[in-house]
C-alpha cells in the first residue's frame, strides 16, 4: 500500500563548471501523466499497471491520497504501480485531511474529482501550495453546483462537501491552464449532461487523451474539450514517457557547455510541452528528435543535443503555454546567449511553486546578469556569469535551473533550499554528476 512520504528538509548545493556533458540516459517519468494514470486507474473497473511512474513526492502524494480513499495500490518495483480500480463510484470517505504536499496538479485535479463524490473531503498542502490561487478552480466548480470553501476565500485548505448534484457547464477559461481545464472535466464525469471547456491558448491535453484511453468518450481538439457524465472507465496498462520538463535542464545545459553531446531516451515530445525546443532552435540550438513513436499522450522520441552558441530572441507569446514549466531553464539559456531576450505574456509564472519571474531575476542578478522584471515577463541581457549565492525559494525548477547556470559561471554557485527537487526529479543530482555537471552538497 502507498504511504505518505516524509517532508523534505532544507538543503543546499554547491555547483560549478564541470566538464563537457556527455551520456545516453533516460530522465524519470512524466509528472502530469503519472498523476493522471493513478487517478484514472483508481476510478477504473479492473487492475491497471503503470510503468515509468514518477517516484517523485508530488505523484506519490496523489497515490497516497487514493490509497486513503480505499484504492489498493501496489509498488512491485520502483517506478511501477499496480492499481486495483474501485470503479467510478467506488471511492471511500478518507478518515482525515488529504495532503497534496507541494503539488498544484494534485490539488486542482482532485478538487474537481472530489466535488462529485458522495462524501466530504479536505485538501491541504505544504507552505508553498497553501499560497497558490485556487479560485480559478473553485469558481467554475461552484457554477456546476459544487460546495467548495476556503477560509481566506481562495487559498488552500479546500473544504469540499460531497453529495451535491452537479450539472454540466460550458466554461470559457480565462486562464490557459491544464489544471483548471482538468478540474472542470473531472467534475464533469459526475455531472448531469455535458461539460465543455474552452481555453485562451491550448494547453496539454493529457486529461482528455487519458480519459479516452481508459474508455470515457471525450470530444477534444486544441483549445477545447467536452464530455458527458454517466460512463465508466476500463482498466488499462500505461507506459509513462520521460518528463520533457526534467529533460529540459539537460537540454539547456548541453546547449550551453562547449563540447557537450547528450542523448536523452524516450521523452514525451507532444507539441503542448515542447515550446522550449522551438525557442532554443530559434536561438541557434542543435537539437534533434530521433525515433519518434506514439505514446498514450502524444509523440515520444529520443532527444539528441549538441553544444551550439545561442543568441537572444523575443519569445513569441504563442509559445508560453507550451513551455510553462521550462522558463527557469529558458532564462538561464537567455542569460548565456549573445544579445537580449524578451519574455512577455508569462504572468502565470508568478503563481507557481514560487514567483518564478522574481526568483530567476533575483538569482541571475546575483550572478552578475543584467536582467529586469516586468509584470508578465522579463528582459535578459546575455553575458558572462560569475559565482554567487542564490535562493531557490524551495522551488524545484529554480534549483535545477541554477545548477545549469553554474556550468557556465566563473565561480562557485551556492544554491539554497534544494530538497524540493525530489517533488519532480528524484535522482537529478546523480544523473547530473554522471553527465559531467560540477555539483555537490553544501
Ligand atoms: O496539468 C498539469 O499536469 C500541469 C499543468 C501546468 O500548470 P497550470 O495548469 O497551472 O498551467 C504545469 O505548470 C504543471 O506543472 C502541470
Ligand atoms: C508548476 C508545477 O507543478 P504543480 O503546479 O503541479 O505544483 C511544476 O512542476 O513546475
From TrEMBL:
The answer to keyword Transferase applying to this record is yes
Q: Where does phosphoenolpyruvate bind?
A: 31, 104, 132, 179, 356, 397
Which SUPFAM superfamilies does the protein's record reference? EPT/RTPC-like
Q: Which residues form the active site?
A: 325
Catalytic activity field:
3-phosphoshikimate + phosphoenolpyruvate = 5-O-(1-carboxyvinyl)-3-phosphoshikimate + phosphate
PROSITE patterns the record matches: EPSP_SYNTHASE_1 (PS00104), EPSP_SYNTHASE_2 (PS00885)
The subcellular localization recorded is: Cytoplasm
Binding of 3-phosphoshikimate: at which residues?
31-32, 36, 177, 179, 325, 352
Q: Under the GO molecular function aspect, what terms does this record hold?
A: 3-phosphoshikimate 1-carboxyvinyltransferase activity
UniProt enzyme class: transferase
Q: What is its EC number?
A: 2.5.1.19
How would you summarize the oligomeric state and partners of this protein?
Monomer.
User: What's the name of the protein?
Assistant: 3-phosphoshikimate 1-carboxyvinyltransferase
Its lineage reads: Bacteria, Pseudomonadati, Pseudomonadota, Gammaproteobacteria, Lysobacterales
